[in-house]
Design goal:
Layout lengths: L7 H36 L15 H12 L11 H4 L1 H9 L6 E2 L3 H9 L9 H16 L5 H30 L6 E4 L4 E3 L2 E3 L4 E4 L1 H5 L2 H4 L38 H18 E5 L7 E4 L1 E4 L5 E5 L1
Parallel strand pairs: 1-5
Antiparallel strand pairs: 2-5, 3-4, 6-9, 7-8
Helix pairs in contact: 6-7
The structure holds protoporphyrin IX containing FE (HEM).
Protoporphyrin IX containing FE binds next to helix 10.
């Protein structure tokens, strides 16, 4: 004997129950099982950090510290912005060498992560321009007349002005990188610095802290000193490079030369007709809303030349 045919409603109910079960299992896997498994794998290798908390992780604590830091502006002229912009990271670093969502302040390791072990950083243009200047002088001086020498002198001054502006822009981007940290996730197990990271580990590369680290940039790390870039970005530190404003490796910013050129053109256009200075109403309060920016804007006083 055949049983009574199932009604469309009971079929829909069964389907919904299966979908709900699947959603619960997926949520459990995503929010609890996977993070706990990754945490165990990293702790087993000696990495320390705050314990994983269901759903919120460290978001609430991060938000609280950010709000607290945002209520206190910095003194004018201070470039010690890391504790204000990344207070949670600063606290973590004081307590732990490493962290579950691993932060690394080692520029070599950061480069390796960003390069995915195969990328190469394009040579900086300033060093190339400097070589061109020297080459130009050596080639022309003995053979050209005074007029040509004066022209070359003018050209060199123009080029040097360009180099100095580039140095200034690099120093601004070092102290105030618009992208304060970069993130990468492992898509398969990877070994770095003697530690095996399973698939799904998030790396946070705190560009801002690397850029302010005295062990990398010297004791004047939080001073504005464009001279450090006199020989190009790669020679500014004892490391190969620790300047990550435009990231590094295969996903390096495609617009980096354009961005520098654009900034130079904007500056040149303004300076042709105006001089400018900071308005007395300026409050020094760098903070992040996606990118690093002045919390209360950047009012300046323009004076027509
Ligand atoms: C000062 C200005 C700029 C800064 C600091 C900057 C910084 C960055 C950084 C850090 C990344 C890498 C993000 C990551 O890998 O997670 C990036 C990627 C990128 N940037 Fe920029 N950028 C700037 C201006 C520009 C401009 C003006 C353009 C275009 C004209 C541009 C186009 C791109 C593109 C297309 C990528 C993606 C590259 C890829 O994923 O392969 N950027 N930028």
């Amino acid at each position: 004997m055949l049983g009574e045919a199932a009604s469309p409603w009971s079929l829909a109910g069964a389907g919904a129950a299966v979908a709900l079960l699947w959603l619960c299992a997926w949520t459990l896997q995503w929010a609890w099982w996977t993070p706990r498994r990754l945490e165990r794998a990293l702790r087993a290798q000696g990495l320390r950090g705050t314990r994983y908390r269901l759903f919120i992780g460290d978001v609430a604590e991060n938000g609280r510290l950010n709000r607290e830091a945002a209520s206190r502006p910095l003194p004018l002229g201070s470039h010690d912005v890391v504790p204000r912009v990344m207070p949670f990271f600063c606290n973590v670093l004081k307590e732990h060498d490493y962290y579950f969502l691993r932060f690394t302040i080692d520029p070599d390791l950061a480069r390796e992560i960003l390069s995915n072990k195969s990328g190469n950083f394009a040579k900086q243009t300033t060093a190339g321009i400097a070589k061109f200047v020297v080459g130009g002088v050596v080639t022309y001086l003995p053979i050209e007349n005074n007029r040509r020498i004066r022209e070359i002198d003018q050209e060199i001054r123009t080029i040097l002005r360009g180099i100095i502006v580039t140095m200034i822009l690099h120093e601004v981007l070092r102290l105030y990188p618009p992208v304060v940290f970069l993130q990468r996730t492992t898509h398969k197990e990877i070994e770095l610095g003697g530690i095996k990271y399973p698939e799904g580990v998030n790396f946070t590369l705190p560009v801002l802290s690397i850029h302010h680290d005295p062990s990398i940039w010297g004791q004047d790390a939080i001073k504005f000193n464009p001279e450090r870039f006199a020989n190009g970005v790669s020679k500014a530190t004892k490391f190969q490079t620790a300047f990550f404003s435009f990231a590094w490796g295969p996903r390096i910013c495609l617009g980096q030369s354009f961005a520098i050129l654009e900034a130079k053109m904007a500056l040149a256009t303004i300076l042709q007709s105006f001089s400018f200075e900071l308005s007395p109403s300026y409050t020094h309060a760098p903070h992040t809303v996606l990118t690093l920016q002045p919390q209360y804007g950047s009012p300046i006083k323009l004076k027509k030349l």
